[in-house]
What does this fold into?
Amino acid sequence: MSSSNRPLSPHMQVYRPQITSMLSILHRITGVALAVGTLLLVYWLAAAASGPAAFADAQALIGSIIGRLLLFGWTFALFYHLCNGIRHLFWDAGYGFEIETVSRTGWLVLAAGLALTVISWVLGYTMMGGA
Amino acid sequence: MSLRSPLGRVRGLGSAKDGTGHWWAQRLTALALIPLTVWFCVAVVSLSGADHAAVAAWAGSPLVAGLLILLIAATFYHAYLGVQVVIEDYVHSEMFKIAGLLLAKAAAIVLALTGILSVLLLLFR
It folds into this structure.
């Protein structure tokens, strides 16, 4: 095939990981994870609509160890994707393209995503009376 | 003078007349999802450990049910637009790509409909 002689762009491995590229792919990964996570949202609403028995099953599933781990992951995915999405909207409006700014806002959205995740869980457990 | 390549012209390929529709819809739904998501997260955190009666009473108010329906519609529209781009970027077999896109679209519609109908059931129960 003649196309095999064409120049290739460098493979991923030759690039040093940078905050910009890592957060870019993390936006995509968290987006796909959240698309899968909508299953839980719909299951929770459908269980609530079905009645107390189905809802108790859903709460038990979400409250299990695996359920809580998944929910914790989805909480971070949601807050990170939300914060970084706002960063993207600023870029779309034409702001924040300087290299220093891009780095700084990158670390900022990562920290904000983690902080919001921890705050939500602490408040959630407080609501449950530390259960 | 046409800017199209001779190959593009002979194959009849050109604009799909879609323009910036996809890009714009993704941004609009993103913008709508900022307040809706923040509201939903605050609500869910304050409902931590709540029993069925409390959750049903919460979702049974017209304002909450309306916001939930908007959240579901915007979420699945936005999610489909995102998943579509991911499939188009990474799935190179034409057959698997089309199958994946149709499956993602069907899943988004079925899940959105299930969510919205559940909210309506809670509202009219």
Observations:
- The helical segments of chain A are 19-50, 52-63, 65-92, 99-127.
